[in-house]
């Protein structure tokens, strides 16, 4: 009986369980609760702002606010330029932090605080949107929404009481809304004199801090205290209306318009010092205005000559003859390495009588400091002719437009044509597979010209001029310039290789008379070449 009852009990449990599951499944499938509602669907455009923000908390600012513009182009630009921006920002940060640290450390009896490592990492910030304000002032105001989750390597070394400790910042996150103001707007490139950066609200800053290799932020309460201190200190210095000011140029000088032209003729140099091993020098002259953003003008190179004659003329635009001065520097040209300075001098424009030619013999000095004892040594002399010609009242606007005018073609040039001048200045970042001994090869209308060879140099300077007399403007012509490396050793293996080339249309130089630019070399990784083109008419 005991066995039979046990078997019957197991059968009853199995049958009952099966029947219960079947009935439960039937009720779940065919009977619905009256309290369950069908889900409703509606487009996002029909929702209010609060609901959308709850559904999509990371929605870009340019969608939330129609006043903000989308910045995909800026994010692409920052991503491409980030390796270079990283170095520039770190350099600026060191410069800004240095006086602040020097002012604060005496209060805490700290000997020194310095950056041992400062690198912002490989991840650039992203900009969620930008709003531009229109004002009646000469300024441009932009508000940006920035988010940055970076992988920086920032190590700060602190010395105090004879001990040294290092603090490393890791996993940095910064969310900020900076206001950038370009003011004042001026008619000189880059068209603004100062940059002002303010924060419209306290920034969100999150980071890890390693002290002596240990995670200092794991200490209870320290994380929140450090965060609040940083927010308060940054807000104290840069929260609007306070701002970080970065001066780009002197606005008083930038607003000034050209008032005259300085005609400079570099005549000759006398008794220059020997710089080369062979007992000679390869001199040339650079001239530019002090504190002027424009590049220098320079003469041709006179090889192996201690008493060179140039007789080359230049025109320099003058904006403030009372404060500006002309700097003249003589260099010794070198095939490899930096060109050595042989001497210099300056001509204050206020010492020149307007419209009166002056022939000046300038003693070449080591520096422009009047009391420098090094200036007593003989470095030779430089002879120049200068004439300052101020504009007349009715010529101010006209002459301001002609500051880039070039000299006329020589006599005998066809009346319907002109003189095409091609100056191959220099190249940079050249890289050969087997050797880098570059020279430039120029092809124009079937004629071939070549510059000199420069041995073992990735950044050669040629400064060579080629002239072509033409019967008609080369509107539909092109020039082909190829940079070639020739092996310096005898042999048939890899005698020459191409380092890159450019193909330039001449229609622009006919219209503008002069073009001076750097061109990216085709079939070269990073190589560029600087070529100046001039079209001189009779």
UniProtKB/TrEMBL annotation:
Which residue numbers delimit the C2 domain?
Answer: 240-362, 402-519
What's in the keyword line of the UniProt record? Calcium, Lipid transport, Lipid-binding, Membrane, Metal-binding, Repeat, Transmembrane, Transmembrane helix, Transport
Q: Name one GO molecular function term.
A: metal ion binding
Record-level GO BP terms: lipid transport
Q: InterPro entries per the record?
A: C2_dom, C2_domain_sf, SMP_LBD, Synaptotagmin_plant, Synaptotagmin_SMP
Q: Where are the transmembrane segments?
A: 7-31
Where's it found, cell-wise?
Answer: Membrane
An example of a Pfam family matching this protein is SMP_LBD
**Superkingdom per UniProt:** Eukaryota
Where it mainly occurs, coarsely classed, is membrane
Which PANTHER family does the entry link to? EXTENDED SYNAPTOTAGMIN-RELATED, SYNAPTOTAGMIN-2
Q: Look up the record and report any one GO term of the cellular component aspect.
A: endoplasmic reticulum
Lipid bilayer topology = Single-pass membrane protein
Protein name as it appears in the record: Synaptotagmin-2
Q: Which residues form the SMP-LTD domain?
A: 67-249
* Entry cofactors: Ca(2+)
Record family assignment: Belongs to the synaptotagmin family.
